[in-house]
Amino acid sequence: MSKKKTVANTVVDPTIRFATIELGEESFKLAYSFNSIAECEAKTGVNLLEGLNDLNNINAAMLRGLLWSAMIVAQPDTTIEDAGNLITFKNKQTIYNGIVNAYLLSMPDWEESTEDPTTPNQTA
What we know:
The protein is mainly alpha-helical. It has helices spanning 34-44, 48-53, 60-71, 80-86, 92-106, and strands spanning 19-23, 26-30.
């Protein structure tokens, strides 16, 4: 059985909101999906959810992983080494800002959410 092609979780998916960063003369779209984060965690062994929860205390491995996992949604052929090669001490703040924007854009709007985040899940 062949896989059905779909735009879901690709750069043309209308439900994904992308942040954009400029690095040199290139522009990169950034977005997070649960799959992109899980794929990066599996490859690197770095807990990126922990990094996203406390962006003030990320290390170099987390920064590279967070950049890569945000890039592969729109640029799926990007390797983790490609992402690491983009990071310099000079553009680290630009990348950090892009990561924060991509993370915020990946969160559902409060109005879109049907669940109260302060209420524990009570499904059996």
